[in-house]
Amino acid sequence: MFNLKKTLTLAAAATTLVAAAPAIAQDTGATIGFIGGFTGPIESLTPPIFAGAELVVKQVNEQGGILGGELNLISADGACDATAAAAAADKLINTDNVTGIVGALCTGETIGAFNGSGLSGGVVFISPASSAPALTTLEDNDLVYRTTPSDALQGVKLANLLLAKGITDIAVTYVNNDYGKGFAEALEAAYTAGGGTVAANVSHEDSKADYRAELGNLVASQNLVILAYANSSGNTILRQAVESGNFTTYIGGDGMVGDDLLTGIDAASVDGLIATRAGAPSGEAVDIYNGFDSDGFTANATYAPQAYDAAFLMALAIEKNGSASREGLSAALREVASAPGEKILPGEWSKAVELIKAGTDIDYEGAGGVLDFDAAGDVDGIIVELTVEGGKFVEKGLID
Fold first, then answer.
1. With contact defined as beta carbons under 8 Å apart, do 130 and 152 qualify?
2. pTM of whole model > 0.70?
3. Contact in structure between 139 and 114 (CB atoms under 8 Å)
4. What is the SS3 assignment for 134?
5. 124 phi, psi to nearest 5 deg
6. Which pLDDT score, from 0 to 100, does residue 259 have?
7. Which CATH number fits domain 151-280+382-398: 3.40.50.1860, 3.40.190.10, 3.40.50.300, 3.40.50.2300?
């Protein structure tokens, strides 16, 4: 999803799932890190995403552990901000000595964390949510991967969806960062190529209290697209747009898909709001993963499937690599994620370990679908439509 924002009130506070032993020095087991925006503009989206990674750790340890010991997970708050994420990564990489990192979530956060300590430390990052096209061209020595599709795809799919619904003109406002800019550019290119008209296109800065001036420049269309974050500018702009009475249709991307988006807004006034996010195809792997849903875990939460896949792949790569060393991990990741190999589905940790020990190639098929990384560390994917119904987001299905 995401590239996201600024909140400077932290550096790198964290939680530890299982006791945090240094990953490189330990004789058995391994430790991985997680960086996400536990505070800031996506703070309501981050805990369910983190829960996807936590579930993997639980399953691995219940099925015999990793490298003959426990898999440990340490989380750090990147606040969806490059500076805060760099501090978080420094702690995880240079103090906690994690083998690899699941994260970050926002694209700017991931780039800041990786450039800060990841590149020099030779650390593999697998982001479940950084969707901006900027990640594709990052100079990363084949260390940065993502389990969610790029917004180059999401922008096209959103354009196709709007045109299919007969929406032929839109006004767009996007948060002024890698996520918003990349998403808006992809949307505008595909939408205009399909015959639609972008009547206005206005960037905005995050975390402001008042966006009425920006909204005044967007009234050329009654169909308002907001590419921002549920806990920050997305909520404020949507609330003030509703108050203005100048718009009839509201549209958002993955960063808007959170219950906090509707805080302080009469749900009836935004009923039918259209949004998109990464989804998953039908099939056995997805069915198995969805079966993990419980009171403590929402399997279909935004980016939770992608976080589960990122953590499972990281664990598989460490086991395949044969040690908690960072060296060789990227090559091992590509081996366990791609054909040929015997299929490994969500939850099948003990089966995977047995095959790896036997020297058999494996190919993980995850909660978000097939995860064959291309040369840039990107994956193909699918995008789904959601709408707001009765004050809640409801998934409607895949977008052609």
1. no
2. yes
3. no
4. helix
5. -75, 130
6. 85
7. 3.40.50.2300
